[in-house]
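Exercise 7.
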Amino acid sequence: MKMLNRFKTALAALALLGLVIGAAQAAPATPTTNHRSSQPQTLDRIVAVVNDGVITQNQLNARVRSATMQLYRQKVQLPPADILRQQVLDQMVTERAQVQAAKEAGIQVDDAELEQALIRVAANQKMTPQQMRQTVEKDGVTWPEFREEIRNQMMIARVREREVDAKINVSPGEVDNFLANQGAAGAGEEVHIAHIVIRIPEGASPETLNKLRMKAVSIDEQARAGRDFAQLAATYSESNDALQGGDLGFRPVDSLPQVMSSAIANLKPGQVSDVVRSPSGFHIVKLIARKGGSALPQVQQTHARHILIKVTEVTSEAEARQKIGQVHSRLKSGEDFAALAKLYSQDGSAQKGGDLGWLYPGDTVPAFDQAMNALKVGEISNPVQTQFGFHIIQVLERRTTDVSQERQRQRATMALRQRKMEEANQEWVRQVRDRAYVEIRLDDQ
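Solution. The predicted structure, written as tokens, is:
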């Protein structure tokens, strides 16, 4: 899922795209991929109720096909069909609960925003939008279904940013402690890891906790005995990356949740950790590889400017979106960025033409940072929404610089923030899922 690194504005939406496009490009024609066209169509039915929404058999079948092809592409042995179906349904239930939480928070993604996201996704896959549509439909997923999945994942990303990411704070004392105890040892080191999560329901009884712990221990013993870790993850893990074999790719070790970094501290590549517990569940972590770690790395700085239209008690979200759209149209027609920033931007940088100076990674909120990092020098973004309102961003220059003492503190702040965000996101997802009304009708005939 490498596309997530560059186009995080579409965020988890791209996970579905990776399943559909990656599998369609890599997998040969098989009875599985042709099943839909060769078999008679049956009447659709409801397989799960999530609060006031439903998941249908056809929707589940489409996701199972995509998951099957993704696992095939990754050369992961498939779990038994009934377990794979249950895993996919569980992920869909969790997604639906999060989408409904986003709707309750008043978050929407209009058609114009969705079209822009689809264009970026297609470009990242080196396709035209029409080619992407053909690839999706070839895999048996209708275009309207695919569009709605992308829209839903964008809504999930926004509600997480509002309800979780924007509320994360890192104190100076936490930074001091990090630098004193962890910063130097883990500076610049990255680890490639995979994990399995057994989720702990909110308010679980001691009996339930013991049962889940024993389940995790059994899985851990199988992994240590040499059973394929990716298959174990696809079979048992209750994380949203289970059907990618639990693979998290390379991650900075100092930004991992504490439970993970501690679990792998003494592991060699290829080894599997003991079972460890976090507030959200029991975890099993496999260390695949390590790299870096010899010195503090150089970092890339970005010189950028922006125009901000805030959402306030006086200016609604719709009005702010309309106004930023008008400013964006004027920029596209050739008007001067600095002049428009002075006229319209509602930010302290307005009198400097929107100039934010040189920014380090993490100096801005995640949505702004991600959109800025996706731009080329000189390029102007489409309107970008953050908790502050709507921005138009232009990258003026980029440079690489050494990490000073001040930047070491900022790097530590970023690492701690990322660690807290991951832990808080896991807890938020658990709460949303556990508080949802869920009725499974998978075995109803």
